[in-house]
Amino acid sequence: MKDFIDEFERYRIIAEKAMEQVSDDYLNQVVGAGGNSIAVIVRHISGNLISRFTDFLTSDGEKPWRNRDSEFDEVVYSREEMNDLWNKGWEVVKNAVSQLNDSDLQKQVTIRGVSLTVQEALLRSVAHTAHHIGQIVLLARILKGSEWKSLSIPKNKSKEYNLNPTREKKSG
User: Fold this and answer.
1) DSSP string covering 6-33, please?
2) Tens digit of pLDDT for each residue in 75-118?
3) C-alpha torsion 146→169→19→97, nearest 10
4) Overall number of domains in the chain
5) Gyration radius of the chain's alpha carbons
6) Of 79, 102, 111, 96, whose CA–CA distance to 8 is shortest?
7) Higher-scoring residue by pLDDT: 17, 155
8) 10 Å Cβ neighbour count for 69?
9) Residues spanned by the domain of 154
10) What is the Cα 55 distance to its own chain's centre?
């Protein structure tokens, strides 16, 4: 379970570092036809996490009260509103996952009526969340332009980084 908790946290931090680089004006910017803004992606991630992890072990992960389609409506959010959405989603995950232990990984949960082990559901959620956080990072990088500060190993700095790999996961 610690690995799942750590991965959720790692991706949360990556997104937050990307969003910190973007001005408030750009949080609602759509960069291409049919695309989503950072704020809309945050709303979707939050809606997904709240739905999936509310009553995680006892109810279907796709809650009847969730209106997924509305998560993609073009709504303008302030940074504070966006951060509130973001934090609500992560709080639900933190509360649910922190109550689980390794023996829970083989228990069954459902998402949209499909039975999955807790491990499968967690893997699915980490992958879904990471996918959208990658979108947030790409949008932030595009919107920030030449002033972007790399969140990983900057271009042409691999050899230098490998001499002191400070961001690598500690073993054990």
Assistant:
1) HHHHHHHHHHHHHHHTS-GGGTT---ST
2) 999 999 999 999 999 999 999 999 999 999 999 999 999 999 99
3) 160
4) 1
5) 17
6) 96
7) 17
8) 7
9) 2-163
10) 19
Does residue 170 belong to any structural domain of this protein?
no
Residue 80 lies in a domain: yes
Tokens representing 75 are 């709504």
Answer whether 0.90 is exceeded by the pTM. Answer: yes
Residue 134 is encoded by which pair of tokens? 């990658």
Per-residue pLDDT tens digits for 15-73? 999 999 999 999 999 999 999 999 999 999 999 999 999 999 999 999 999 999 999 99
Could you please report the per-residue DSSP string of 82-104? HHHHHHHHHHHHHHHHHT--GGG
Q: Is residue 169 part of a domain?
A: no
Domain membership of residue 6 (yes or no) is yes
Which CATH number is 44's domain given?
1.20.120.450
- Taking the C-alpha atoms of residue 83 and residue 115, their distance in angstroms, rounded to an integer, is 32
pLDDT computed for residue 170 by the predictor: 61
Q: In whole angstroms, what is the distance from residue 38 CA to residue 29 CA?
A: 7
Is 106 within 8 Å of 117 (Cβ atoms)? yes
